[in-house]
Amino acid sequence: MSDCIFCKIANKEINSEIVYENENIVAFKDINPEAKIHILIVPKKHYETILDVNDDEVIKDIFKTVKEIAAQYDIDEKGFRIINNCKEDGGQTVMHVHFHMLAGEKLSTNII
Fold first, then answer.
1. Could you list the active site residues?
2. pLDDT for res 108
3. Residue 25: pLDDT above 90?
């Protein structure tokens, strides 16, 4: 999609602090972090929501990326939170499927 901010980041049209990248996935720091560590994990191919992802390899890559980032940031022992918002009622504000990875501090249990 030509006007999708996450597509532009994945295509390197917009600068972002990329922390991980492979053939299918790009992960970068959120510009408005909700925790000390706040990484967005995004498929390079545009899918509006998680319900639109029909490629098992992309799903596998997303969760492989979670493990890679957890090790990279040394949060694999202490823990982290993964969030995916789906559509408007689910709180999705950018219509390109993405996962928030939050860590680096004790997270509130108010959001589950």
1. 98
2. 86
3. yes
